[in-house]
Design brief:
The structure holds 2 protein chains of 2 kinds. Chain A is of the alpha+beta class. Helices cover 25% and strands 16% of the residues of chain A. The radius of gyration of chain A is 11 Å and the shape is globular. By secondary structure, chain B is of the alpha/beta class. In chain B, 41% of the residues are buried. Classes of the chains: A alpha+beta, B alpha/beta. The interface between A and B is medium-sized, with 25 and 29 residues.
Amino acid sequence: MLNDLPNLKEEDQKDYRFFHLHKTEVENYDLVIVYHKPVLSREKTLNFLKLEGIL
Amino acid sequence: MTKYYYHQTLCPSIKNPVSYNTVIDRTKSLFELPDIEILTPIGELCQSKTIEELCYDSTNNILNKAGTNKIVISWSGGIDSTLILSEFLKVTPKKQIVVLMNDNSILEYPEFYKKYIENQLEIKTIDFHKKDALVESIQDGVLVTGHIMDNLFGEPHNYQIMPKEKLNQKITEFLTEVNEQSREMYTKLIDACPRKILDVKDLFWWMNYTLSYQNEQLWVLLEIEEMILNKNLFHFSDTKDWNDYSVSTSAEEKYKGHEFNNFKMPLKEQLYKFTKDDYYTQNKIKVNSWRNYRTPQELIKTIPLFITTKWERAWK
């Protein structure tokens, strides 16, 4: 998972549960869903979304 | 227990093959989100109303609720907002209409501006880096937008970039090409559709319609605390009848073939009855929404954490 998200600190990574997020396996039209735990701070969530290019 | 219409961290995001932030699954088939309430249910399979009837009903419904307040229409020059403005021009005194626009609106449809707006209607300039104009619009008026139309008619971003072979691909074949987890999730979503999803074009409409609708519906409300849905903010096509039309009409009818100028042709045909503009009807294509002129940094600043079902909002 670290390889997938090089910009995210390890302690932050455990806060997220990923449904299939190995980018090497994501081809064409595979569905990639990212879940966020509600305990996350707004700052961490926004930071994650920004790093992932979602925002 | 507090329930939410939107919650940034309770709701997941989708990254591929479409990019949706804060996904609220209106079918409730894909995600278990017990704290999230759905504002507008998905439509039913039926003999739906025509576009002309839908436009007439939406216009009159909003006029009835607005009373003597101004009708402030956010006009981008695109298909949806131009259709909405034309529908109000049919039945509303010109002095009651205010057009919320900027120079990009004129660039997108200069002929309409010259013929129906310039020196005829009150204009308020909107700067999408500020929210002043949106706040002002509800001081003595109601704001009317064309949001939701994209969700009803398809998935424009992916429609533009997908090859025609993919768009036309049968859904059974599509499912064999994705990984097992994706197939399982797609199948849950597909099975929740009141009508049979036949091809990829239909699937991408269904995804935008079910997973991105509520996020789009709440966009202005997320930024402007004074806004209340269906009180001083109206999305023209956010009604049960429009939803029934969306579900009961195939993606092929809403977007024939794979030439992108055919996207939303039923709306363009309705607009044509007013403008008689052959060129716009045949050639106008969907372009990126004007609010996307904002930088990602500006967008982050304005995104709140949640909206409760009592319309309480929090940004921290």
